Amino acid sequence: MAKVSFTEHPASVGENYVEHLGSAWGFGAAMLRGSLACFIHGVFPFLCLTTGSRTIRDLHERMVTHRVRTPAGGAITPQG
Fold it and tell me: Concatenated DSSP letters for 48-64?
């Protein structure tokens, strides 16, 4: 049961556990950078003018536009 928990979702997006870990950490790091830029922008409105919105667009493109899912039949198909 535990093994399924660690492999089922990564497999559904065409990744193994380590690939999915790296991808998730990459998303987390990008969100952290974007979040910090928004906090900085709030205090200093002349800094980080587009960093937050650019981060959201980039993450949306990576996560939604270029998503690959594996349906029950096993074939990998792009989502969009």
Answer: STTHHHHHHHHHHIIII
